[in-house]
Design a protein that fits this description.
This protein is mainly α and 266 residues long. It contains ten helices and four strands, in the order αααββαααααββαα. The chain is elongated. 24% of the residues are buried. InterPro entries: Neuro-gated_channel_TM_sf (IPR036719), TET_plant (IPR044991), Tetraspanin/Peripherin (IPR018499), Tetraspanin_CS (IPR018503). Keywords: Membrane, Transmembrane, Transmembrane helix. It is a multi-pass membrane protein.
Length: 266
């Protein structure tokens, strides 16, 4: 008689197998439709993730429903390693995103971001891959809405709640004390300062702006920090789910061994 735990493992893995199909399809679609370096960078990890889920799901289905004990053992081993990996990543994500935050500026709706305020590990990763990231940011046209708002008055712009990337990449730092002309057009004045290295990198050219600035890197890090914290919370929920599935899988594995022993000694 088929045991309840074996059925549950089979059903749960059928669900994950079905989920893997659109993931693989999405990766293949990205590989054919990609127009930017960012999209091409994502295609392989997405396909690899989908194939991994597919193979693990098949191992769980065959191992539990067809009573293939060694395959179910492999499935449980992979699940255990995945739980361990997710647990370590979750702790790591909370540690590296603990530092850094935007600085509020008096009279401004947006914040300023400093690259040095964030985790050293994240800083090194961004510096190492900045050429690729720089290209991605330009392709994403994050400053497009500001460029189109060329008629925005200074008082209205200073009240804007800009995103971290818009604040860091699309306008000069507040330290520069440049004169506002439009959201992406600023001019130097006798009172302007170049103490901050970002000030000399600023350009009114739409494809340049402050994409090469440290503040742009800081804006990216602030985005990464927020995203990683959300991922870490989701990981905790997913970990609980995996532990439940792993526990049910252990019961199914025990059932398989008992059934095999019963067949061996009638």
């Amino acid at each position: 008689m088929v045991r309840c735990s074996n059925n549950l493992v089979g059903i749960l893995n059928i669900v994950t197998l079905l989920i893997s199909i659109p993931i693989i399809g999405g990766g293949i679609w990205l590989s054919r439709q990609a127009n930017t370096e960012c999209e091409r960078f994502l295609e392989r990890p997405v396909i690899a993730l989908g194939v991994f889920i597919l193979l693990v799901s098949l191992a769980g289905i065959i191992g539990s429903c067809c009573r293939v004990t060694w395959l179910l053992w492999v499935y449980l081993l992979v699940m255990f390693l995945l739980i361990l990996l997710l647990f370590c990543f979750t702790i790591f994500a909370f540690v590296v995103t603990n530092k850094g935050a935007g600085e509020k500026i008096s009279g401004k709706g947006y914040k300023e971001y400093r690259f040095g305020d964030y985790s050293n590990w994240l800083q090194k990763r961004v510096d190492k891959n900045w050429n690729r990231i720089h290209s991605c940011l330009q392709d994403s046209k994050i400053c497009q809405s500001l460029i189109q708002g060329s008629n925005t008055k200074a008082d209205d712009f200073f009240k804007e709640h800009l995103s971290a990337l818009q604040s860091g990449c699309c306008k000069p730092s507040n330290d520069c004390n440049f004169e506002y002309v439009s959201p992406t057009n600023w001019t130097r004045t006798p009172s302007s300062s170049l103490v901050n290295p970002d000030c000399s990198k600023w350009s009114n050219e739409p494809n340049v702006l402050c994409y090469g600035c440290q503040s742009c890197k800081a804006g990216l890090l602030d985005n990464i920090k927020s995203d990683w914290k959300r991922v870490a919370v989701l990981n905790i929920i997913f970990l609980i789910f995996l532990i439940i599935v792993y526990s049910i899988g252990c019961c199914a594995f025990r059932n398989n061994r008992e059934d095999n022993a019963w067949k061996r000694y009638p």
